[in-house]
Design goal:
Strand content: 5-15%
CATH topology of one domain: Deoxyhypusine Synthase
Structural class: alpha/beta
Shape: globular
CATH superfamily of one domain: Deoxyhypusine synthase
CATH architecture of one domain: 3-Layer(aba) Sandwich
Number of helices: 15
Number of strands: 10
Distance between the termini: 65 Å
CATH class of one domain: Alpha Beta
Largest sheet: 6 strands, parallel
Radius of gyration: 21 Å
Helix content: 40-55%
Length: about 375
């Protein structure tokens, strides 16, 4: 017997314009030429010099140059820096979690983000906002139907300033035609049909303007043809509070993103992997992707050994990770992201730094190297 479920249709959902936010992108964004708040340590400078050289060589040899990050890098206003790195050809892939997607979209849509969690949970308002829940979930359902990944779907939604809503009749006909030979596409069409019916969406183009699009990292990636992938966990993000949310579409689009991520890892021998402020998402998806990639390489008599990983976080580490893992009675053993990446072969470097200072130093180092 099914367990009872919470009915999201009963929620009183306020407009996003009623929310008080803490970060305003035009005021708080970080220009590419901004000075560092804190200089890198001597060890940090050594790692940065090494990283710059590795990126130069990886780009020369057409190897993957992956940049993964937690949501704070977006919330801290670093969109101009991410976009610069893409435009200059220094990264071939960006990846974040579901919260990173949301902050980036809210900045592009209304120019501000980051609500007061404590206050709004107490009011029964945290995360329960009309535009964020409605539009992001709609973009993902439509994108899954089109065969797009999670981040790609949101990037297209921002870049196109809206989304095309097909008629119910067209989707029903597609389901009938595809059900036998392409059931995956039929299911995606059925997901979209379900949402269209639930919200009585009219066919045609639904225009949703994004006045601050120039700060949208996802839209820039979509425009430049660079994969920007999202790796969400069900229930972790505020868009799950909205009744437009559809788990099957989330899974469909997020699976595409995971496999796009894994394909980049497949080309990482001689490449560079940067992980900034992501203690869980980045190491977890990396280890599975590397294992799959090694599986294919081994079948061809090859092996991925020459991958260079730079891990950045604010947490101090007092262990020399080039010596392997610390013993279990050492607190550094429980720095999971370091331990996970240290087990991945190749070369791993850890840098204690703020994401803002790391990325600005990276841009400066690459500029000086050219």
């Amino acid at each position: 017997m099914p367990f009872p479920q919470f009915d999201r249709d009963k929620l009183f959902i306020k407009n996003l314009s009623e929310r008080e936010d803490k970060v305003f992108i035009e005021r708080d964004h970080v220009p590419v030429d901004a000075p560092l708040s804190h200089p890198l340590s001597a060890q940090g400078l050594k790692v940065m010099d090494e990283l710059v050289e590795r990126l130069v060589q990886a780009r020369k040899n057409n190897k993957s140059r992956m940049l993964t990050f937690g949501a704070h890098a977006i919330k801290n206003g670093l969109a101009p820096v991410f976009i610069h790195l893409m435009e200059e050809g220094w990264v071939t892939h960006l990846a974040t979690n579901g919260a990173g997607i949301i902050h980036d979209w809210e900045f592009a849509f209304q120019g501000h983000s980051s609500e007061d969690v404590r206050t709004n949970v107490d009011r029964g308002e945290f995360g329960i906002w009309q535009e964020t829940g409605m539009y992001l979930n709609l973009a993902i359902v439509a994108g899954a139907w089109k065969g797009l990944g999670y981040g790609e779907a949101v990037g297209a939604f921002v870049e196109d300033d809206g989304v095309e809503i097909p008629s119910q009749e067209a989707l029903i006909e597609e389901i009938r035609q595809e059900a036998v030979n392409n059931p995956v596409q039929a299911a995606a069409a059925a997901d979209f049909l379900d949402r269209i019916r639930h919200f009585d969406l009219k066919p045609g183009f639904m225009a949703v303007r994004h006045p601050f699009k120039k700060y949208g990292v996802q839209s820039a990636a979509y425009r430049l043809g660079i994969p920007f992938t999202s790796h969400p966990m069900i229930g972790h993000d505020i868009i799950y509070t909205h009744p437009m949310n559809h788990g099957a579409a989330i899974g469909r689009s997020a699976q595409r993103d995971f496999l796009a991520f894994a394909q980049q890892v497949h080309n990482l021998d001689g490449g560079v992997y940067m992980s900034i402020g992501s203690a869980v998402m980045s190491p977890m998806i990396f280890e599975k992707s590397l294992s799959m990639s090694q599986n294919l390489h081994i079948q061809e008599g090859k092996h991925i050994d020459n991958h260079y990983m730079v891990i950045v976080d604010l947490q101090e580490s007092h262990w020399d990770w080039s010596q392997g893992e610390p013993p279990m009675d050492n607190p550094d053993y429980y720095l999971r992201y370091n331990k996970s990446f240290n087990r991945m072969g190749g070369e791993m470097r850890y840098m204690t730094a703020d994401n803002r200072d790391f990325l600005l130093a990276l841009v400066q180092g690459l500029k000086n190297r050219q």
